[in-house]
Each structure stands twice: as structure tokens, then as C-alpha cells.
């Protein structure tokens, strides 16, 4: 990739310059990232190894966990490695790759969460037709569509940014390369590009969020006719998904459905959708889900038996 300007690298200002606060951040984010990796891997292994967790909901959850691992890995390792660095540099190509990766996996997660809401809507509103509508081929197409949607969104954001000239300064007031901080450094008029970024990123977040909200309104209306036991079970399942949606979509809409301006609070809020949400997903989906917890217990007991039979 060639850049026609005189900027070959960018300097990330990071989260804080306070050395004592850096030590706290290092410990926290290292623990968060390890939790993300182990927690999401545990969900993937549990679902793949359990014959009972074979419904479309768990099929989507497997890919959500995989996306969370990839999404957090785009930003978290660089953030952790740079905490004690005096000069946090990243090459132009590395910066663009980070921009592409963040929007690719973030976009895929947005579309996948929307697909999961549709799955829950069909399961609760049309239970008799659920297995017919949510066939394996349909679920696979929805997952593939999520990846393709994330790619189209990401490549558009990336191309809109890479064609801009960067003449200096090259300091990014963030802990990773995102579209708005980069647009701020461009030495040209970015009004049109800013509108295209909003249309591509902000509107996708807003439209998907409205679709999610509409699906849950339909679910709540439908649940009025269910028994109290069925209503409680359905709400318990949907509550996990709603929690994830609020934590992920709230900051995204705040960032990408506004003009190309940056605030000092942006990088602190960005932690929610790049690190906190991928870390909370395993906890939210396991602590509120008896089927997953039972499958994890069986997996743990089976591994203990195999270990005992092998080494004792």
C-alpha cells in the first residue's frame, strides 16, 4: 500500500500519561484480554462438544464468540503493549490494517446481533414454524451475510480514509486507529468524506438498532399471550441479548452517527465496545443460561474423568 503524503507512521497518544494510572490500566486490560480469550473459547468448545446445544441460537453464539476474540485482538494487544512505551508509534500500513480489522469485525458483530434478534423473534412469535424457517442453510447464509456485510462496511471506511492526504501532524489522540481521529489529521476538506462515513457507519448502526428494537417490541407484544412460566423463560433468554445490544450499540451510535469531530472522552468510551462488551458476552450468556452452564459442568466432569483415567 502506497501513501502519496509525507506521513509514514502515526503516534498514538494512548489513554493516559499518568504513570501510576498506567500500571492499573496494564493490569486491568491484561486481565480483561485474557478473560476475553478464555471465556469466548470456553463457549465455543462447550457448544461444539455438546449435542444438546445444537439450536440456531447456539450456532450464532459460537460465531459471536469467535468474532469477539478477533475484534478485541485488533486493539487490545497493541493497547497493552503501548501502555509503558514513551512513544506509541504505528506505521501507516499498520494503522490502516487496524482500521480495517476493527470495522470488519465490528460490522460483522452488528449484523450477527441483528440476525440473533431475528432468530429469537421467530422462536417466540412463530414457534410452530421455527424449525422450518430457521433451517441450517438459512442460519449459514445469515452468518455468511454478516461477514460479507462487515467486509463491505470496512472496505468502504478504509478506502474513504486511505485516499486522503496526510501532511502532518501525525499524532492520534486515541489508543487505536479509528476513522474519525484519522479524518481529523487529513490536510484537506473532509466534509463530503465525513458525510459518507456517517452514511456508511452511523446509519448501519442506527438501522440495525431500530430493527433490533422493533423485533423486541414484537416479542414483548407476543409474550402477553404466553403463560407466566413461558414468558419468564423467553424473557430470560432475550435479556442476555438485549444487554449485549445496549452495551455494544450505545457507544457505536454515539461515535459514528455524528459529524467527523473527536472528543477527549471518545477513547474512554471506545473501551466499552472494543474490550468490555467482548469480555462480558461470555459472562452474560453463561450466567443467565442454564443449558450452557449444565453443558460446561458436563464438559468439566468428562475432562476430569479422562484425566483421572489417563494419569492416575
Question: Which descriptors would you attach to this protein?
Answer:
single chain; 3% strand; three-stranded mixed beta sheet; mainly alpha; Rhopdopsin 7-helix transmembrane proteins; 312 residues
Write a short abstract of this structure.
It is found in: Cell membrane; Membrane. This protein has a single domain, classed as Rhopdopsin 7-helix transmembrane proteins (Up-down Bundle).
Helix and strand pattern:
EHHEHHHEHHHHH
Query: What structural category do the secondary elements indicate?
Result: mainly alpha
Main sheet characteristics: 3 strands, mixed
**Total domain count:** 1
The CATH topology label is Rhopdopsin 7-helix transmembrane proteins
CATH architecture: Up-down Bundle
Distance between the termini: 57 Å
Q: What is the CATH domain class?
A: Mainly Alpha
Helix content: over 70%
Tally the helices: 10
Question: How many runs of DSSP E, i.e. beta strands?
Answer: 3
Nearest-angstrom radius of gyration?
Answer: 21 Å
| Beta-strand content | under 5%
**What is the average of the pLDDT values?**
85
Walk me through what this model shows.
The protein has 312 residues and is mainly alpha-helical. Helices cover 76% and strands 3% of the residues. It is built from ten helices and three strands. It has helices at 19-49, 56-82, 92-125, 130-133, 136-162, 179-185, 191-223, 228-256, 266-287, 290-311; strands at 9-12, 88-91, 171-172. α1 crosses α10 (290-311) and α2 (56-82) runs antiparallel to α9 (266-287).
